[in-house]
From TrEMBL:
Residues 130-141 have a biased composition (Basic and acidic residues). GO terms for molecular function: collagen V binding; heparin binding. The keyword Repeat applies. Residues 672-704 form the LRRNT domain. InterPro entries: ECM2, Leu-rich_rpt, Leu-rich_rpt_typical-subtyp, LRR_dom_sf, LRRNT. Keywords: Leucine-rich repeat, Repeat, Signal. Residues 53-87, 130-201 are annotated as: Disordered. One of its GO terms (cellular component) is extracellular matrix. This is LRRNT domain-containing protein. GO terms for biological process: extracellular matrix organization; positive regulation of cell-substrate adhesion.
Amino acid sequence: MYCDLLPVFFSSSFFSLLTKREFKRAARGTLPVKGNILNSLFTFSPETDVSSSQHQLVDSSSASGEKKTNEVQRTGQVSDTTTDTQSVMGRAEAVWVELNAVLERWAGAAGKLSTILKELKEEKKRLLDQGEEQKVKKKSEEEEEDEEEEEDDDDDEEEEEEEEEEEGEEEGKEEEGAEEEENEASNSTSTQDSLPEGCQVGESRVSCKQIGLSDLPVITNLEITILELPGNNLTSIPPSGFSGLPDLEELDLSLNKLDDSSFGLNLFMNQTKLKILKLDGNELTTVPHLPSSLEDLKINNNKIYQLASDSFKGLTNLKVLELAGNILYESSIAPWAFKPLKALKHLRLDKNRFSAIPVGLPPSIEELRLQENQIVEVQDRLLDKCVHLRVLDLSHNLLKENSIYPEAWIKLPKLETLDLSYNQMAVLPSDLPKTLRQLSLQHNHIHSIPPYSLSHLRPGLQTLHLSHNLLQEYGVLGKSFRGVYQSLVELHLDNNRFERVPHNMRHFKNLKVLRLDHNRISSVPVKSICKVQRTEDSPLSTVHLEYNYINVNKIPRAAFSCIRDSSGIILEPQTETQVNTVRSRELSVEILQPKLRSVFVSLCISAMISCHSLLLLLLNVCSLTAPSLALPFEQRGFWDFAMDGEVGDLKTVMMRDEEGSAMEELPPDVFLCPFGCQCQLSVVQCSDLSLIAVPKEIPKDTKLLDLQNNRITELKENDFKGLANLYALSLVNNMISKVHPRAFTPLLHLKKLYFSRNLLTVVPKNLPPSLVELRIHENRIKKVAEGTFSGLGSMNCIEMGGNPIQNSGFEPGAFKGLKLNYLRISESKLTGIPKDLPDSLHELHLDNNQIQAIELEDLSRYKHLYRLGLGFNHIRMIENGSLSYIPNLRELHLENNRLTRIPMGLADMKYLQVVYLHSNNISRVDVNDFCPRGFGMKRSFYNGISLYGNPVNYWEVQPATFRCVGDRLAIQPSYRLLLEPDLKRRCGPGARCFVMDRMKRTVLSQPCVYDQSTQ
């Protein structure tokens, strides 16, 4: 019966109750409670009392709770009764017989276990003998054995558990990987299925570029980090359009049709990881509410016209901000607009309408782009807080050398790159930032470099660009480059008027690149570039002397002796050979026949000109030089258009291959160029030639025609015949008094007409309907007849100041049909604001006239005005309520008039930001003259209030008067150099100067005054 218990003892369910350690301890009789059954078995001996053994077996069986021990339990029950002792003893004897057999088997098992224990003990001793430290304290022999065995058992268990865990982890990873692959595949498939045709799906990117989307696509993949939707027709975005993309890091919405209403306050609520946002080429007028995680924001080419104090609220992580191609003025930027941008490094504000550098730029900025604006001055210390500024681009503006204040850059310790190209500099400016390494001054009017003007630069200038100026040898002296002889690496003097190599070129120690091409140099003397006695090679590796008048065969051998590699000396082609060729009667390009083309090919080979095609050679032969930009048009933007490539690329008229397969298809007039003019691409420059008439044979593909500074007296009917592609025409500074009614008829695509400084008495009739810009100032115009501008629906800008026109000279309906944005009638003889001007005007300039008063209805038509210029008039009175008709005004000029008080209504103009009231007769400033009484009524803070030159006791002005001024520097109660560049400040007899902030009043001790004494 008890043999039936053996399978139970050795079953997995039984041994699951005992660990290996417990099993071994049970064999030695040291296992408490849980192992009492095995204790009983392993400690049994034949000498043990039978009844005791029975009781132990019964108790053990009862404690184990096994279902198959019913017999033992019944034996235990019998032992508890005293009624039938004989029966009990008989049964016990039977049990003993069976149990004896069981114990014999267990004895064998116990013997084996004992053997194993002995082996383990010997192994342990061996390990101890090898140097294992004794960790067990002295105890009894049995305790030592227990501890040793327990440690061995624990190690075995841990190893087994670790193996099982590793196997489980590997299996789990495999399952997870399989699941991830399945999820990615399913997500990608589901995302692709939900997107419109033409979209591309990557691992974490969705790209739907230029596929004509009008609605935001539904994206169900939550793991998308890059979403590209440029070049579509999106006009709106649902409020929850991006709510399902919490991991989005980059979003491109450029080149769509999104306006301000498309960007709700909560549109990017879930985009806490968004770093890059591109909104270029949309229709935004303000900066939308954006997530604080942004690091790169591009809003170029929109219609943004102002930046409020909260425009960039919360964008403390923004590093790159681009706002190029908008409608921003310096007065349309609140003083604290950039204050939240603590981390900003790169700022683009180019292609806007700034006339000065905006205030309040963040101190962290490193790169500032302000090119292609209308900046006329750089004021003192305006950039003082930009101590990390490294790159400043002020190219394509209206800067002159004396419009940069002496302390403009004094606190810019890291400025290394300064671009002042395409401005109106006549002399290399002084007081340049001393840390400069790269300076660009190309395309100015510079004719001289003053001595020591670069000597203060430390550690020294490395690159200097002076191309396309008016430099001649007498304007560059030995001391002109003092201070940069050791540091300069690149010097660009090409496209100037040098007739010989400047003699100081050989003094440069580390110069590597020297450009003197496209000048009038006729010889290279032996000591002009290299020192004759120099014992080591010069660092100079590249010298450009092509397109001069040099006879290459007469250059002395020692002229370039210091240059190691002669391949860097570029001498050909020269201009003289080409001039002779184009003017030769025998090889006139006008009568060029196919048989003579080989002659030009031989010329190309003999002159060693690199020609890719015969056409390229002929273009080189016919064009004397590239058009000189040393004398740019007075109107900014004319030559910029040519340089931007809008006139067409040379490649479009070149042959498609080098074999000349298309030569027979060339138009016969492709090589025409008027005698004495310069023709390149689609630009024809015929300025400063004393022409008395428009030249003939102008190429029909001409887009820019420069005829300024000549003696032309009349425009005849056929002067511009065939010039249907002409884009811009400059007739500035001629003697034109007559214009044929059909002179402009052929000019079907003319956009810009510059007619200033002539002898016109009326505006020419029948101007091209395509005309966008007309500049006709400084003529003798006294009358603008009705219908003068009829049919000119595209006209946007008219400049007609400097004419002796009176109010009566404007007939009713003179401006009928025009949708002008800009009109200037300054320096005329107006006594009041003209009637019936276009009501679409954004800017109206009537400065330097004889206007005496502004009546109530004078401004009633001009509700869209942003700028109004009425300075330098005789205005004594502005009728109450007059300014209420121009509620959107941002900038008001009333300086140099005869006002005796602050005009009424300024406080009610919610958007007014700049007011010029200096040099009047104002003697009192009241507390509510500028700011409204109620809080929050004014939408924009003042950026500038100019009050100097008035008999005001500024210490009597209450501080609350300027409570709506954004910055104390915006208040100009004392002095400021504004207009005349030849004015200079000096201390002497005169009125005191005051500096006023918003809460304090301070009087300077020294009196200052402006005068016009000579420099």
